[in-house]
Amino acid sequence: MNGTCAFTHRIEFLLLLVVCILSACSPTDSPLVVDDEAIANEEEIENWLAYGRTHNEQRFSPITDINTTNVGDLKVDWYIDLPNDVGLVSTPLVVDGVLYFVGSRNIVKAVDATSGALIWEYDPREAEYIGSTRRAGFSHSRGITFYKGKVFLATWSGRLIAVDAKTGKEIWTAVTFGLDEPLFITGAPKAFKDKVLIGNGGAETGPSRGYVTAYDTETGELAWRFYIVPGNPVDGFENEAMEMAAETWTGEWWKHGGGGNAWHGFTYDAELDVLYIGTGNGSPWNRKVRSPEGGDNLFLCSIVALDPDTGEYLWHYQTTPGETWDYNSNMDIVLADLEIEGEEVKAILHAPKNGFFYVINRATGKLISAEPFVETSWASHVDLATGKPVELPGVRFEEGPAYITPPPFGAHNWHAMSYNPLTGLTYIPTLHKATIFADAAVDLTTWQSIPFQGGSATDGFAPEKQPREYPSSLLAWDPVKQSVAWSVPQDHYWNAGTLTTAGNLVFQGRADGHLLAYDARNGESLWDFDAGLGISAPPITYKLNGRQYIALLVGWGGGYPAWNGDMGWAYKAHTRRLIAFSLDGEVELPKLPPPYFPVPIKDDTFIVEDALAYEGAVLFDPCSWCHGGGVAAPDLTASMIPLDHESFVSVVREGSRAGLGMPAYQYLTDDQLLALRHFIRRQAMNAITATSPEGG
């Protein structure tokens, strides 16, 4: 090399060094701008940027480091204990090496995605905000969203909050509904096109008219709102869509709210520039009350396509016209390109509660196919000409009790399904149960829901005869053939959502605390890890510093566990956790206690009066949302607090444990508190009698 050439190379090196310094030495060190282009990138491997990983909501990762040949070597890489959390159901996000997640009471944490070290924590202080205004509700959230340097969370009480992703400092807050409205939020917001969308739940908690609202991501200003069902016609209609929908209702539905709450199931189609929302069930469930002369009751139980810029109605497809069984369509709306009869179709894949798997043309809203993926005793099939289900006789309990499957918890609930474009299969956490529906005990002419007490205007109970010998399954479903590819029966109800990867894997956590990996092609079980505590949250995967991680939150939660303590995951008995796995993991996870079932306290000095216990049973009904199963909140039959008047007053009326998620019920009188105590003690005595050698 001559001198001139060497000198030139030195100059080039110095220039490169300067550029390197000015650009922070590496393009990868520049913070990722999480915008629509980034969220739509299906090739992304380092991050998990949105609820379903990308805008398509497929929960499919192209990472192949962990695959069918080595998944058996997965071990714990790091974990963190979450002793103040209860039910953990959310999907974490990973952005630039930081993992963000929301836990109980809507508290958001940011941790190092390679170690779990805490970076910041944001507490919206729900108890302080709610005060004594709200009644019983839920303490869990299914997720957060990330957009252009901000983390967005929605609180149970109705606030949408933007937080600085670097510092955890609050930027703005928008109040989406008032504290006096019987609504709540448990779903994840959805960010797109400089807007963030949120809906609400509440069809069972009082007269409720559902809607979704979009806010400006920078300012928090309201951009647009779309109501899902029409209001009182004398007040006028917000748009032509509501005027059209009103023609499908009868009676004075607005006195009951109508329902339709969109609490989950938001998908933005970046390719077609369309927003899809899944809508909820009626308020109340029973159409005989809310719309006594029948009608489809739009837009209940539908997929509604909206203009993302204005919220203007584009089209809809209704899965359950005139629904009366809590068959909402708030489940995943997954986008996929399918080849059907030799043509490529831009499709929506949707498996709602009602038991049919739908393939819909997402450009037009036209139904392509619909087939039952579980037993559907309420309808025989879906007529492709009309797009409507063909109901079987008597299923609206017109002539007495009706045996209905799927039940109100559905054939598939909010637990995430995933779609693998390589296998062409969707992986669905599937439920198999039945319910007896009736309304003979309901006065259909006078029934009215009371805010924060709610009701469905139906009666129901579980029959002895169930559709299968097992209550749930992991189902691999072919959306093109509309048939089962493979299925794994499961012994427990309410198992978690799924993740699928290009390594031909499907991951799913279960109610019994096991996290499993299956061969995505045939369902063969390849790896089984006992986390020691029930799992409801879906796993995610990401790759940092050459290492692929599988991460998930552990802590059984959601609506079903709130009423059912049959798994033994008792409140505060088992520490909730965030666990990350890798092929290079070397951490030994401390064992948790075995399943624990609280033992009712026996106290012969507390003499139960039947009249007071009966009054207390009525008062306790909304309390059962949390205390019914002893998972989301303490089993009060095993608590000393109801035995002492002053202690009970301190907790229930004065809110001494509001910081742990127990609201203050300041409106309760001394007599009502006494009635509640008598009911709780009667329940304790009944449980003791049922389990004693001489009793029951």
Share of β-strand residues: 25-35%
SSE class: alpha+beta
The low-pLDDT segments are 1-28
Query: Gyration radius, to the nearest Å?
Result: 26 Å
- Tally of strands: 40
Write the layout of secondary structure elements.
Layout: H1 3-22, H2 36-39, E1 60-61, E2 75-82, E3 93-95, E4 98-102, E5 108-112, E6 118-122, H3 126-130, E7 145-147, E8 150-154, E9 159-164, E10 170-175, E11 190-192, E12 195-198, E13 211-216, E14 222-227, H4 240-246, E15 258-259, E16 266-269, E17 274-278, E18 282-283, H5 287-290, E19 302-306, E20 313-318, E21 334-340, E22 343-350, E23 356-361, E24 367-372, E25 379-382, E26 389-391, E27 402-404, E28 418-420, E29 425-431, E30 435-438, E31 459-461, E32 472-478, E33 483-490, E34 498-501, E35 505-509, E36 514-519, E37 525-530, E38 540-544, E39 547-554, H6 559-563, E40 576-582, H7 610-620, H8 624-627, H9 645-653, H10 670-691
Parallel strand pairs: 1-34
Antiparallel strand pairs: 2-40, 3-4, 4-5, 5-6, 7-8, 8-9, 9-10, 11-12, 12-13, 13-14, 15-18, 16-17, 17-19, 19-20, 21-22, 22-23, 23-24, 25-26, 27-30, 28-29, 29-32, 30-31, 32-33, 34-35, 35-36, 36-37, 38-39, 39-40
